[in-house]
Amino acid sequence: MDRPAVTVRLFGALYALQKERGGPTVLEVELPPEGVTGAELAGMLDLPLSMIEGVFCNRTVRPLGHQLMPGDRVAFVPEGTPGPHRFFLGLYAAGKEGVETEKTPS
Amino acid sequence: MREILRVNMSTLTISKEPLPEKWARYGGRALTSAIVFTEVPADADPMGPDNKLVIAPGLLGGTSAPNGGRLSIGAKSPLTGGLKESNSGGTAAHALGKMDIAAIIVEGVPADKTVAYALRLFPDGKVDLVPRHDLKGLGTYETVAVAKGIEASEHRYSEKVSFIVNGPAGEMGMKAAGIAITDPHGYPNRFAGRGGLGAVMGTKGIKLIAIFEEGLKGKEHADKDAFIAAVRKFSGALTTHAVTSQALPTFGTNVLANIINEAGGYPTRNFSSGQFEGVDGISGETMREITVERGGNVKHGCHAGCVIQCSRYYVDEDGHYITKGPEYESAWSLGADCGINDMDTVAALDRKCGDIGIDTIEAGVMIGVYMASGKIAFGDGAAAMAVLDEIGHGTDLGKVFGDGAEATGLHFGVKNIPVVKHQGLPAYDPRPIQGIGVTYATSTQGADHTAGYTITSNVLAVGGTVDPLKPEGQAALSQGLQIATAMLDSLGFCIFVAFAVLDMPEAFEAIHEMAAAHTGDEWDADALMQLGKETLTYERLFNEHAGFTNADDRLPKFFLEEPLAPHDVVFTVTDEELDSVHSFVPEVAAQLGIK
Ligand code: SF4
After folding, report:
1. A85, B263: Cβ pair inside 8 Å?
2. Does residue A82 sit within a domain?
3. What span, in angstroms and rounded, lies between the C-alpha atoms of B120 and B128?
4. What was the pLDDT predicted at B331?
């Protein structure tokens, strides 16, 4: 497999949480070939779902139920993005969908 | 009874008059825009005697409404040529509100163009205008330091004073000049930055407005108990919502840097890319780490009664104050847009902008444009500082820079100049975040909605479905948000309360409950949205009278033609959709009896 991992970035409160734990805020995480959902990846990293509003997959905001595939660029966004961007970027919608959404291919 | 304080700089006279009944429900932006619309001819020379500088606290200024102490400053803009309202924090708004001053109108121009005056308002209602030639040409920080010292020896009120200060850029009439307002610690680090209002203040010969607050009491309410109950409700919402209780107080507005960069909408090197490889160096997360490590203050309000407290101080390695922790827009403009990835450099540029009194957004966009000309390199912080020095010294080149991004771009033959209506675009590229593009292009407009809750639920409904890369739904979303913004600006609320207001019905209710309990008038959701629409109507009509047409509601061509990496998209919202956002204006104008 030429793209076995995802690169994961953590922002805002998630960045602070990771720093408190003494961990890196940009991580390489190996995924199974079929990928995992955003919620599953958050679980693998021990990130509380209650703190997460959405997940960027390849620079587009997705809900936590979105399927992340090896090779994707991923970033977790905590609750609390200020500005109209929460709406303009789709974070608000992603947060409302949460993990209930159907798995969607990357 | 709120009053208007009228200061005529041609005759050097001061008078007070009751606020006209027709504007009894207005404060802040609604009032500055209504006054400019009514009293300033649309074809007036912005730098001439017919333009007026209008300064107004919000309708709830002077009360304990949480986050309700913002200040509006309005005039015909020398930068855009249209009606401008620039909004700022700082302590002045509450002080004016407590004095029952609905607005200060500064009109005329002094015969002697070399003068510098201080306008002083005292707690006993006395107001005077005194020559202060000693302050002429001083930076904003030095102005405050000198003025404080002298006033301290003259007045027993000196300990509690708010200053509204013009910097040298404004005194020299530069079109990117802003007006500084002091914060609770007396630093002139809050800014009514956009639109060149410092240049208007400069033409009036006023260097400083000093508002002495000692002994001023909070405002009375028509129904005190109901007001307190609504304040509690509002405060409860702000202190539980994730944006207003966690992200902003912890990281400030610059928490957006990583997020907008990740979305590919972080304009980099004069809007030539949507991602900045050096974002880590200037992000909100990094700024907090540096500030905490150096022992700086990382959480305070810009005025009493702010419960969100997004402000912070950026300090040097020895822990000495340099500037307010740069806001997202400032860190972006002086950072990514110039290819600068170092927080200390950004903070030094931010301080310099504050001291000479120039808008940080316009300054950064201007320097980015200058860098695009090839005269200096992207990423060169020292060269960027030299540009600001030219402005401060008022050299011939400095006067070009001080007139902003467009003037600089035209002077140096730059192809891509990111401006709309002659003003630099702020920190979001409109190609991958199309809704922002609609707001940029159309600026003062509104939606054809009739009810307040319809507006907010529409915003949320649309916000739930828009794709940031596609045009569908963006106009409606932008409209709703702009109406809500104009309403909040008019009541005197910090725009950051909007995040809780849009999410939590009780926060929205609390706003009209506070307005009703304070004024004794009827306020409800519809009335709030009507206030926003009326505000936008004054602004839109003034601009039409000043010669603006739909053709001015457009983004520069390169946003429509040159795809932006990494999404490789262009702005695709149609002209028809952009034009549709003004459809409500004739109806509201008819209701107001204006044309
Ligand atoms: S949230 Fe920030 S900008 Fe708003 S009132 Fe408080 S300190 Fe000022």
Report:
1. yes
2. yes
3. 5
4. 97
Alpha-carbon gap, residue B437 to B425, rounded angstroms: 10
The full set of domain ranges for chain B reads 3-212, 253-428, 430-503+524-595
Q: Residue B300: left (phi > 0), alpha (psi -120 to 50), or beta?
A: beta
Mean pLDDT of B315-320: 96
Sign, CA dihedral B80-B82-B88-B93, equals positive
Count how many Cα atoms sit within 13 Å of the Cα of residue B525 in the half-sphere of its side chain: 16
| β-bridge mates for residue B190, sequence order | B181
Measured CA to CA in angstroms, residue B220 lies from B26, B216, B224 at distances of: 17, 12, 8
Which superfamily does B3-212 belong to?
Answer: Aldehyde ferredoxin oxidoreductase, N-terminal domain (3.60.9.10)
What are the tens digits of pLDDT across the range B28-74? 999 999 999 999 999 999 999 999 999 999 999 999 999 999 999 99
Distance B562 CA to ligand 1 centre (A): 36
Tell me which chain B residues have a C-beta less than 8 angstroms from the C-beta of A83.
Answer: 253, 256, 328, 499
| Inter-chain residue contact B256 with A83, CB threshold 8 Å | yes
Cβ atoms of residues B421 and B80 within 8 Å = yes
- Do residue A87 and residue B428 have CB atoms under 8 angstroms apart? no
Length of chain A: 106
The DSSP-derived string for B270-322 is TTTBS--TTHHHHSHHHHHHHHHHHT----B-SSTT-SS--B-EEE-TTS-EE
* Best probe residue, ligand 1, of B187, B306, B495 (max atoms within 8 Å of C-beta): B306
Q: The whole model's pTM is what?
A: 0.93
The alpha carbon torsion through B465, B466, B467, B469 (nearest 10 deg) reads 180
User: Is any ligand 1 atom within 6 A of the Cβ of residue B311?
Assistant: yes
CATH number for B430-503+524-595 (one of 3.30.420.240, 3.40.640.10, 3.40.50.10890, 1.10.599.10): it is 1.10.599.10
* Number of domains observed in the structure of chain A: 1
Q: What is the CATH number of the domain that holds A77?
A: 3.10.20.30
In this predicted structure, the answer to whether residue B462 has a pLDDT above a threshold of 80 is: no
CATH number of B253-428: 1.10.569.10
